[in-house]
Design a protein that fits this description.
six-stranded antiparallel sheet; five-stranded antiparallel sheet
Length: 435
């Protein structure tokens, strides 16, 4: 569900833009939205995207330079908005790139020299098994800073989550887990929010289960935690045998199929007492879509309804869809518990929540990060895309595309390429968690 994840980048951070003139990186594909990546490390900055001919492209520049140098990789984008590109540096400084996969064989590149994009080579296998039907690649950091790679093996409704760990000395991957983290037993698969390292030193993980490619079949909000992402347990500290199944999982909220919950719109944050809070939406008793918060209190999850909207978001079917409602994660800022949201009918904002009831006490403006005119597309029918960078949250990518089309080719002419631009904000903002 790429559309929802990307739009949420608009809600991430409170920085305002400085005076730096934007850098024009390159013309890019504009026929449909798909995620790009930006990584800043030391005095270098890397960008990964699909160019105007849909070729996977990686660029690098020194932060004192205004131009990127590029290499094109042998991977061509189709029409699938799931097929974002992502990258990471390992602890030895070698670059890793993956993407353009939706139930497809592994697409993975690694540099043979530290920081050198010209030495990127395609690596056909990581460990050699469960790599023929990959989706949702993610590079993560483990508890000791080790590089991890996770992806779904299988398809929507029938897939398992795989975790690998990289050894810089041998330059080889191995399984972090000797079996998948989750198993839908051929009846469902787990859709995860990225693990979040909490103030208690645990990685907190939340997910929903989905039975078929139809997005209305999401159900059962689920939680687990881990100190090392290898050994998982419940919120009470009870070890979880792997793979985690629906029958053995800690269910936070038993939302049924067609209950108004969707993958890509579950977030985990923490309140002033460092308690985990899971934000999501589902239908209320009248069938309207509301934002809920589940908080761990005294060893049990307590569920609070935070919104009171007279609106039902009815979604169904497969492919990438437009998200009419988007949610952030709760956070504590200057003593206040805040929650960001965006709604096609009721607009966007930041709620200041009552610490006890998790009900909104005040609504603040959420549009201060970017000037309104900056968010206006330059052409009719186009939509603005933004991607906040990793490593240094000051940097933001901006480009324009048509909206999602459920991953199907568009009829007629496609729009001309648009310019991918790099902006630097005046403050660091809040870097994205877990990307």
């Amino acid at each position: 569900m790429y559309a929802g994840r990307l739009v949420m980048a608009l809600l991430a951070g409170t920085a305002v833009f400085g005076q730096m003139k934007p850098i024009e990186i390159a013309p890019v594909w504009a026929g449909h939205p798909v995620g790009f990546d930006l990584l800043t490390a030391g005095k270098r900055q890397y960008v990964a995207f699909y160019d105007d001919q849909r070729r996977m492209t990686v660029g690098v520049r020194g932060l004192e330079e205004r131009a990127f140098r590029f290499v094109r990789l042998p991977s061509q984008l189709g029409w699938d908005s799931h097929n974002y590109v992502t990258m990471a540096l390992d602890r030895a400084g070698f670059l890793h790139v993956s993407g353009n996969m939706h139930v497809a064989p592994l697409v993975y590149f690694r540099s043979t020299k530290p920081g050198d994009i010209d030495s990127l080579e395609q690596v056909k296998e990581m460990v050699g098994s469960e790599e023929s039907r990959c989706t949702y690649p993610r590079f993560l950091r483990g508890a000791s800073g080790e590089l991890l790679f996770t992806y779904r093996d299988g398809r929507s409704g029938s897939g398992n989550q795989i975790y690998n760990v990289y050894d810089e000395e041998s330059r080889r991957w191995r399984r972090l887990l000797d079996q998948p983290l989750t198993d839908g037993e051929g009846k469902s698969n787990a859709y995860f929010a990225d693990p979040v390292l909490g103030p208690d030193g645990y990685f907190h993980l939340v997910w929903v289960w989905r039975n078929t490619p139809d997005c209305s079949t999401n159900h059962d909000l689920t939680y687990a935690r881990s100190k090392d992402m290898a050994h998982w347990e419940t919120s009470a500290g009870k070890p979880l045998a792997l793979p985690i199944r629906v029958s053995s999982a800690e269910i936070v909220d038993a939302v049924p199929v067609q209950g108004g919950m969707i993958n890509g719109n579950t977030r985990i944050g923490f309140d002033a007492k460092k308690r985990p809070v899971i934000t999501y939406h589902k239908f209320d008793g009248k069938g309207r879509t509301q934002i809920y918060n589940a908080r761990l209190e005294g060893g049990a999850w307590k569920i609070y309804q935070s919104s009171d909207w007279d609106y039902r978001w009815e979604f169904s079917g497969g492919g990438t869809i437009h998200f009419e409602i988007r949610v952030g994660a709760v956070r504590v800022e200057k003593g206040a518990l805040l929650l960001e949201y965006s709604h096609d009918k009721y607009g966007s904002g930041v709620w200041r929540l009552d610490e006890t009831t998790l009900r909104p006490m005040e609504t603040r403006t959420a549009a201060e990060e970017f000037p309104p005119e900056w968010l206006k597309p330059g052409r009719d029918g186009m939509q603005v895309r933004v991607q906040r960078g990793k490593g240094d949250g000051r940097y933001v990518l901006r480009w324009e595309t048509l909206g999602p089309n459920r991953d199907r080719p568009r009829a007629g002419d496609v729009p001309a390429p648009t310019m991918l631009r790099l902006y630097e904000s005046g403050a660091s903002g809040r870097p994205e968690q877990g990307r």
